[in-house]
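Supplementary Text 2. Reproducibility record for the structural model of the 422-residue chain.

All settings were left at their defaults, and a single model was retained for analysis rather than an ensemble. We include the record here because the model underlies the residue-level annotations in Supplementary Table 4.
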Amino acid sequence: MLKMDYLLLYIDPGTGSMLLALLISALSVIFYFFTDIFNRLMILLSGGRGRQTGEISPMVIFSDHKRYWNVFEPICDEFENREEDVLYLTASPDDPVFRKEYKHVRAEYIGSGNRAFARLNTLKAKVLLSTTPNLDVFQWKRSKGVERYVHIAHAADDITKYRMFGIDYYDSILLSGEYQGKQVRALEKIRNLPEKDIEYVGVPYFDKMKQRLDECPRVKRDMQGKDGITVLLAPSWGKNGILSKCGEEFIDSLAETGYRIIIRPHPQSYVAEKDLIEKLQKKYQGVQNISWNQDNDNFEALKNSDILISDFSGVIFDYALVFDKPVIYADTDFDKSPYDCYWLDDELWTFKILPAFGKELKQTDVKEIGRMIGDCLSDGSYEAGREQARKDTWMHMGEGAKRTVDYLEKCISDPGKNGTNG
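Retained model, structure tokens:
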């Protein structure tokens, strides 16, 4: 009988992780609910300062960080070319948008954190476009003055790699591959959500990056380092990332190869893993073949390297599909429990396609990384895999910005109107 009681109390690790994630989400919702009430009270006590006027903006873009400028620039350029007015709200005071001399795209810094969300929560607009997940889950609440919220992904891979409930409360979602649409519909069915409008537009920032690459002058590469080879290490952040799981051991092995090594952590690592990054930077400060890259624009780092090592970061697809170069991806035992993909039985598309165009690095192979880099650079079999990935996740190549703005203009003229879905 006692044994049966223990069995009844047992929760398997996967279910436990999901329940913990749900509990954290619920507590966060409660916290931000009262934060939102506080913000609204402060606006009221200040005599309404900070509240939007009665003016309704037809088209608003919100960027929560300057690093997403690569996503929005081609879209803003297209609006500018059409002489269509856009209000661009950013949470970064040094957002690259301020360096553009637009006539029809008006940029405004709205502060960060609760200050930014207080502005957004009282916004009036026909359509709002953003990459920011978790609308109506945490601080960012749907404004009664916004008629349609449209989400565009900042990476060309699984749409279910957002933290839980990432896209649930958007009205529309712009995608680049049909597998993403199937994931959206599956989540809607499981969670009993109304169907969002899905529009397949492609990847505007891929198109822009490819154009930049094609227009780059061919310059002679600096041949420092072993055989003139440059390796780019660009992991994601968090406990599943390479730096958290392998850290010093892996960087030591890379340094020993003699290749030039560029380490480009995910921007969020400098916030969420600050101590780890500072520790690693201090340790390798004097190592001649190791440098660190923190440019807002990753174009030069991608262009000037010969091979990429990453984990589950979306930069893998930028590198392989746009720059057509080989990748090594780390086996980091990806923990699905905090993400939307945990709710789905299907394997992530990312992990199904990776073996077709990249070489897997297991933790037992860390000491052999030099050999693996050489093998991967000389193996021509990954080219077909890169082409298949392009077909899966880069629809309407070269037309991303045009199709995006076409759709948004339809929404502006009739916010309740569905798109073409094709």
